[in-house]
Amino acid sequence: MGTDAFTPHLLNRLRMRQVALLLGVEELRTLSAAAASLGMTQPAATKMLHELEDALGQKLFDRVGRGLQLTAAGSAVLASFRGLRGSMEALGRELAELRQGSAGKLFVGSIMAASPALLTDALIHLKRTFPLLSIEISVGTSDRLMELLREGKLDIVIGRLLKLSTREYVFRPIEDEALAIVVATDHPLAQRRGKSLPFADLLEFPWILQPAGSPMREVMEQEFKSHHAQLPKGLIETSSILTTTNLIAKTQMVAVIPQSVAARYQAHGLLRILPCAVRHKLAAYGSIVQKDRPTSVAAAEFLRWLHLRPSRAAVRAAST
Hints:
By secondary structure, the protein is of the alpha/beta class. It has 3 domains: 3-82, Winged helix-like DNA-binding domain superfamily/Winged helix DNA-binding domain (Arc Repressor Mutant, subunit A, Orthogonal Bundle), CATH 1.10.10.10; 102-176 and 283-319, Periplasmic binding protein-like II (D-Maltodextrin-Binding Protein, domain 2), CATH 3.40.190; 179-273, D-Maltodextrin-Binding Protein, domain 2, CATH 3.40.190. It is built from 13 helices and 12 strands. It has helices at residues 3-13, 16-28, 31-37, 42-56, 72-99, 115-129, 142-150, 199-202, 215-226, 241-250, 259-267, 297-308, 312-319, and strands at 61-64, 67-70, 105-110, 134-139, 156-159, 169-175, 179-183, 207-209, 236-237, 254-258, 272-273, 285-290. A 5-stranded mixed sheet has the order 4-3-5-12-6, with helices on both faces. Strand 3 (105-110), helix 6 (115-129) and strand 4 form a beta-alpha-beta unit. Helix 6 crosses helix 12.
């Protein structure tokens, strides 16, 4: 059966209780527990699972001892059902807010680089347009934010798409992100005079880096390899900019943060950007939404403002 014919076939045969059952098996680990949570007998749940497999034309589980183990097809179906649950949760929130007569709530996730100006300006504009709109902001790394988007806990992410499929998401690039190596204003390296600082000199001090798996951490791992150096022992790993800046202020630690954030902190005398360029670059970040999830009016306006805003490069060019 072709893809075009499969979709209406599946929509005609798929039931929401089948979706709930499969998600319940993932959460509770056994079919009997999932059946009980839905108020069903185990034989009825087994029959429903077989009907789902028949509708999909794929086996979803293999028996392993007394338990069930997902097949490759089962894993793919479960990932789609998680997205469906996220869409239902987002719809439930929106309908509840409409019943209460509110202007709704927008959930936005953003990487650090967008926070100082881009995110702030967009939020100010949005609140002028929708003064009663509630907005919840989560700041983190792209990998974690994408998990929250997939689970339906965020409406929009400002970050990187990483290696995820563009068939599931709409990604619109906004800006490249430069990185800065920073220390406290009284750090020994901050007192050096000269045009550039050898990377080897930084290795004499303890480091703070973002957690493994985040795009910034991957870039810095490449940077260390290009200098034939291993990651420093005794790393502190955090995605919190506040924790990072507090630590470097009171220690001789070296950290890496977005250039846009570092420039603001340096302008207020809170840290020093070292004259040591990071050779490897991060991919451009942008706005990310799920393709199959409806976009609210407020979310659409937020996205419009994000992409109307002129790039920093254009602003700099106009001012010179």
